[in-house]
Amino acid sequence: MKIGILSRNRRLYSTSQLIVAAEKRGHDVRVINPLRCYMNIAAFKPSIHYDGKTLTDFDAIIPRVGASITFYGTAVVRQFEMMGVYSLNESVAISRSRDKLRSMQLLSRQGIGLPVTGFANSPADTEDLLDLVGGAPVVVKLLEGTQGKGVVLAETRKAAESVVEAFRGLDANFLVQEFVKEAGGADIRCLVVGSKVVAAMKRQAQEGEFRSNLHRGGSAKLIKITPEERSTATRAAKIMGLNVAGVDLLRSNHGPVVLEVNSSPGLEGIEEATGKDVAGMIIEHIEKHAKSGRTGTRGKG
């Protein structure tokens, strides 16, 4: 098979592991910087051009589209889909998962456990918004943030009001969520491929920090998840329409709650923590499912 990996840097761990896994199985792999692609949006023969040449004959693409280039990156993925190329994660699913508010509304509609979450526009509603999520401490989270950026823990009501006021002053869109204290600064990253959780790790925030992201100095270790957590992770990925997803869960007093569904999960931390060849499992999934024209949008919304 001829597989294209949409990535801005072939030296990134996740990208390089996917290259190794695909080549090990005899596939022809090419890394394509999505920002270098330009498109001919024609009615009968849509095409993508790169370095002065037309990209042709791809059997599948693996989008590794960063949050900062979601708009253009998903446009490139959509163009490949118009050309009948199988995409591991489709453009609509990627866009859906990147919008935190939209994704939480979709998960909520399907009965997935979530932290109590509030969203408002008017400053006049701040008091009631904080009451809605149970009062301080609360987590204030930018809709566009990734890797723990734009996430603030406000431990008192005054602090929460100040953070909300600051975000509003920047015309930023944000959510206010309950702080799940019983999680103890830990979350669970479930790596879903197809309809299965193929690897799971517990991420623990370093002392004095509530964000457990590995980029924030958190640590990771192998963990055995419960059947309910496994079901929650696979259902969340399916609702988003993602074939590959990193689903972040918290263990709360009322069961697992979903923090986020990531459409381009990093592989380094979870492969090191679990010892599993996740990249190889992703390539195996493509081998089983990649067919020309199989680009129908999955899920709703």
Kindly list the characteristics that best describe this protein.
alpha+beta; Rossmann fold; 3 domains; Dna Ligase, domain 1; 5-stranded antiparallel β-sheet; 9 helices; D-amino Acid Aminotransferase, Chain A, domain 1; 26% strand; 301 residues
Shape: globular
Question: What is the strand content?
Answer: 25-35%
Q: What's the structural domain tally? A: 3
What strand line-up does the widest sheet have? 14-13-12-15-16
Mean pLDDT: 88
If helices are DSSP runs of H or I spanning 4 or more residues, what is the number of helices? 9
Structural class: alpha+beta
Total E-strand runs? 16
Radius of gyration: 20 Å
Under CATH at level 1, the class of the largest domain stands as Alpha Beta
Uncertain regions spanning at least 5 consecutive residues: none
Query: What oligomeric assembly is this protein in?
Result: single chain
- In percent, how helical is the residue content? 25-40%
Give me the CATH architecture of the largest domain, please.
2-Layer Sandwich
